[in-house]
Design brief:
single chain; mainly alpha; 14 helices
Length: about 325
């Protein structure tokens, strides 16, 4: 009888949306009398991804950039008349997909019971998940209840760099409560989709040490392929991060990195660390196929980074400005 009562309690808590995890929980907006929130987010996101599948990588990247500066508080969405907000920082100038978040917010604000209830931070977290799901990527739980930040400063943008070595990257992630596995899964693994530009790899293939050479850590044949795609003065042409499956969410990019064809120094350097190298080999050589599951777990952890809840922050009326 005691076991049956315990099971009934677990089911009840799941229905009303409580979590044993603390500040965030699933079903948060059902509790806030806006039960259609997640359906609206999914429907709008799917409409955009259907028209432009490349937005999946862009929205995932936006969520990552948001969480790494002041936590997952939607501060990357804020505009500044002085061009001094997070979105004005050089690494964020190429962010795309703001219109998806803005459309979701507008739809929610048009529903009386959802007006002034749903945070932009939660919208972005859900949009990133649903965008990946829309291209047949993995699903992960997105506990909700984040509040929106009121501060967005260009000077605070210090994101993990595509030119960083593995020691620096491990510290970047550790500072956010993320470990080496999260690093290799989120930093390299997420590059299974999306594109970069010739400008970000030009020095790596043409003038790595200032002597007209290429990075010896990159496969020489791949360097020649990239040179055909990217002439020395070209900084705008796009380059697929995963050259064989850039539009498919899979573990193939680990094979690419293992073959020394990782596009960024930040990917190639993961071969120089025992922990990150081991994970790459598990996926690329042993084909353990744990990437989707691992990615989902790391995304849940990312979504908890330095969150604002309760009386902290606010619920913005418009995602691109504070109230």
């Amino acid at each position: 009888m005691a076991l049956k009562n315990l099971l009934a309690l677990v089911v009840l808590l799941g229905v009303v949306g409580f979590s044993f995890g603390g500040d965030l929980y699933e079903g948060y907006y059902r509790y806030k009398n806006c039960p259609q929130m997640e359906d609206i987010v999914r429907d709008v996101t799917y409409q955009y991804i259907y028209k432009d599948p490349t937005l999946a990588a862009a929205l995932l990247r936006m969520h990552f950039h948001d969480c790494f500066v002041r936590g997952c508080d939607g501060s990357v969405l804020i505009k500044s008349p002085n061009n001094d907000a997070e979105r004005d920082a050089v690494p964020n100038l190429s962010l795309r997909g703001y219109e998806v978040v803005e459309t979701v917010k507008s739809k929610l604000e048009s529903v009386s019971e959802c007006r002034g209830v749903v945070s932009c931070a939660d919208i972005l977290a859900l949009v990133a998940r649903d965008a990946v799901l829309a291209i047949n990527g993995p699903w992960w739980s997105v506990p909700l209840g984040r509040k929106d930040g009121r501060v967005s400063n260009i000077s605070e943008v210090n994101l993990p760099s595509p030119f960083a070595n593995v020691t620096t990257l491990k510290k970047n992630f550790a500072d956010k409560g993320l470990n080496s596995k999260d690093l290799v899964v989120l930093s390299a693994g997420a590059h299974t989709i999306g594109v970069s530009s010739c400008g970000l790899i030009s020095s790596r293939i043409y003038n790595f040490t200032g002597k007209g050479d290429s990075d010896p850590a990159m496969d020489k044949n791949y360097v020649e392929e990239l040179k055909k795609r990217c002439p020395p003065t070209d900084v705008t042409t796009s380059v697929d991060m995963d050259p064989t499956s850039a539009h498919k969410f899979d573990s193939h990019y680990f094979n690419t990195v293992y073959q020394k064809k990782g596009l960024f120094i930040s990917d190639s350097t993961l071969l120089n660390d025992i922990d990150t190298n081991f994970y790459i080999q598990m996926q690329a050589v042993l084909n353990l196929n744990t990437f989707n599951s691992d990615f989902s777990k790391s995304m849940v952890k990312l979504g908890y980074v330095e969150i604002l809840t309760g009386d902290q922050g606010e619920i913005r009326n418009f995602c691109d400005r504070v109230n």
